[in-house]
Specification:
By secondary structure, the chain is mainly alpha-helical. Helices cover 62% and strands 9% of the residues.
């Protein structure tokens, strides 16, 4: 903790022209008015923060969410949906036979494969059919339909840890103390 306090004292003086005593610096760290973190710690804090935002409201993320969707999840969704559809039309007088004939299929399995082959991108098809609001609801209840790790890594890479962790000015300060590189973020 002493090294982190020293890092905070240097950054406060050099960048913000604030003289902080050792005891006051310790209190600022405890109260999380400032964060002083190693690279691994700062990455972990970013992930935790982004995860909390994700769980609160996916629409917070102003990104092309389609890029992060799990295509296999949506393929399974459509496979199950089409299987249910085929099961339902079995009980309608002659409907299954008519659709098999129109699609040049001989069996229910062939027809299922025919229906699936008409969808080029399952995630895009879902968005087209149900819209982005419904997609956001789906993500809330089935978070496995999106690659959160890739989404979070891209946000950290593009926005930077400073924009995520420093609520005061969005700046990430670096300082080396006794051979350890620390990142300092101001939050008030």
């Amino acid at each position: 903790m002493d090294k982190k306090i020293k890092a905070l004292m240097y950054i406060a003086k050099d960048y913000y022209d604030i003289d902080i005593s050792f005891d006051n610096a310790e209190k600022l760290l405890i109260d999380k008015d400032y964060l002083v973190l190693t690279s691994e710690e700062s990455y972990k804090y970013c992930i935790e923060y982004l995860e909390s935002l994700f769980n609160e409201d996916i629409s917070y993320f102003n990104v092309n969410i389609e890029y992060y969707l799990n295509e296999d999840f949506f393929k399974s969704y459509y496979k199950e949906s089409y299987e249910n559809y085929i099961e339902d039309i079995k009980y309608e007088d002659g409907r299954l036979e008519q659709e098999l004939k129109e699609s040049n299929c001989n069996t229910e399995e062939e027809y299922l494969q025919y229906l699936l082959s008409n969808v080029k991108n399952y995630a895009e098809e879902y968005i087209f059919e149900f819209g982005k609001n419904e997609l956001n609801n789906l993500i809330k209840y089935y978070p496995e339909c999106i690659d959160k790790n890739k989404l979070f890594d891209d946000i950290i890479l593009n926005d930077g840890k400073g924009n995520i962790l420093s609520r005061y000015d969005g700046i990430e300060h670096e300082i080396e103390i006794e051979g350890i590189l620390y990142y300092v973020y101001r939050n008030y």
